[in-house]
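User: Fold this; tokens only.

Assistant: Input:
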Amino acid sequence: MPVVANRRFHFSWPLTLACLIVLGMLIGLGTWQVERMQDKRAMIAERAQRLTAPPLNLPAVIPIPDALEFRRVQVQGRFLHDQELYLGNRLRNGQGGYHVVTPLLRADGSAVMVDRGWVPLDRKLPESRAAGQLDGQVVIQGIARRPRPPGWLTPKNQVEGNFWFVVDLEEMAAATRLPTVLPVYIEAGPQQNPGGLPIGGQTDVTLRDNHLVYAITWYALAAALVVVYVLRSMKED
């Protein structure tokens, strides 16, 4: 008859120490993803609450700009169409184009940048969409935004060529020869402009929330490591 070998757990300090270090890292990464998930969901809930609140008249002085992020606001003033700026590489339904950013001068002398929305590549020039160049005093409703820092792969804004990759309010104020602009900018709402351009309502309010999947992955790897450690430590007598 075949002899069945007895297998017992053999403790090894080097193997155990190495597994404990890796196990701690895997559990730490999983817990970090759980915390990220909780923060992200709180952010999503706060953003939804701000987006559904009644429009706020944009104040002339904004001591805490981040408090206005994703708030619905309205502002009155006069567009400086001769100072249009163009955010490039903007897609809409798979079609390339620009976002038109125009300074809005208010009665008190303050100015705010307004992302009026998307135009196709062949309608960049203002004369190709003259009907949408609103004259006189206008009331704009939209979403207050704070500029996002550029990613490490994002090219620098081409100020001289009026081709912008990201919103930089200080650079834009200098390019439009304005002494200062408010520390937030407005993404215009979906109300239609005469002639149909620019197309507003381009605010992206979605936030990816894959943290639960990542947390489960890290915890599963931690569990697999424990199984491998036990199997590796079981040896024949």
